Amino acid sequence: MKEFKVNQIEKEKLNINGYGDDVLWSRANTLIDFNSPWSKDAIKNIEFRALWDKENLFFQFKVGDTSIYIDKTDSSFNSIGNSDRVELFFRSDHRLNPYYCLEIDPTARIMDFKAFPNRNFEFDWDFSTKDLKVKSNISKDGFVVEGSIGIDYLKQLDLIHDNRIEVGVFRAKYNRKNNLKYEPTWISWVEPESNVPNFHIPSSFGIFNLL
Length: 211
What we know:
- This protein is mostly beta strands.
- It has two helices and 13 strands.
- Strands 1, 2, 3, 4, 5, 6, 7, 8, 9, 10, 11, 12 and 13 form a 13-stranded mixed sheet that branches.
- The radius of gyration is 16 Å and the shape is globular.
């Protein structure tokens, strides 16, 4: 499995504001090896960073995309699910029974749900609002999504074992095609073992090591 090192910082020092400009982010390792095994479309630059302290896991996506697509029909999961977005999946182990999905569009709309094998989704489940914080910003160069999730909350969900978290890091990019419809390109940190686009399988996850 791919592994990513998450450095520790002092408690309550990182400011999550949606711009990703806090100086503490310079202490984070940067994950850039994203790919789409199912598409020949060019992938715009994606940078992912993570840090942690005794209370929170912090995450940041910086996406260099100037052609962002957002379905503004409403704030439903259908609308978010038809928009450009970034995604984090968390699991206890390879059985995916259960796992937890957090999908965020460039305006910080959240689609979160609990899932089980064979794409059995519980959309009425969501991350605790007191333990999840998300901010975003769109600029001429692309967009930033950053946030934090409570460490104790992740432990309650049985997601941290020996300072290791099994995580999938993804992006959905919507491009306008010749039929004038927007269709997704599915992008992943870990290349899933699937001939068709599918993040909801054990091989799509890697490991975050909390140092």
